[in-house]
Amino acid sequence: MTDPDTEFHAKLRGLVGQPTGGSEKPSIAPDPVNQPMIRHWAHALDDMNPVYLDPEFAAASRFGGIVSPPVMLQTWTMPAPKLEGIAERGGAPMEITNNPTAFLDDAGYTSTVATNSEFEIERYPRLDDVISATSVFEEVSEEKKTALGTGFFLTWLITYTDQHGAVLGRQRFRVLRFRPAN
Prior knowledge:
There is one protein chain. The chain is α+β, with helices and mostly antiparallel strands and about 180 residues long. The protein has 6 helices and 6 strands, in the order H-E-H-H-H-H-H-E-E-E-E-E. Strands 1, 2, 3, 4, 5 and 6 form a 6-stranded antiparallel β-sheet that branches. Strand 5 (about 150-160) and strand 6 (about 165-180) form a beta hairpin. The mean pLDDT is about 90.
């Protein structure tokens, strides 16, 4: 008979290197990088950098043309949200068909809070790039006690590439999965 605690920790350690969504297939952007979306982003965030908005200026820049704000990488690969049934999915905007961390819920670590996100940019996306993203678990902490409760920090690495497979950037995303404090 196996010790359930040992089995749990083995599953937890086994996440490292595994795809976050259970599939090794990349997530492909529904649309290529395009000027209207860049313009919406620039205006929404009041980031009026002329390499994002002014074709003449951008052409004379080191980029040689319009580029996307680099932290838009995540935005390009987001699927259209499915709102029907969102409450039943715990607020998740998409169907979760294969959740490799479901065993954490079963063990009582039912709450999640995002703690931080870090970007490393290799190159700015250009108009008409088709961006793909692959996401794997990179690190799982030892159990930590926090003001929110006891849990584990899970870090995954998302690698964004263009249509030729060239890396555009990477994003580390970290969450705390925890048992709420009483």
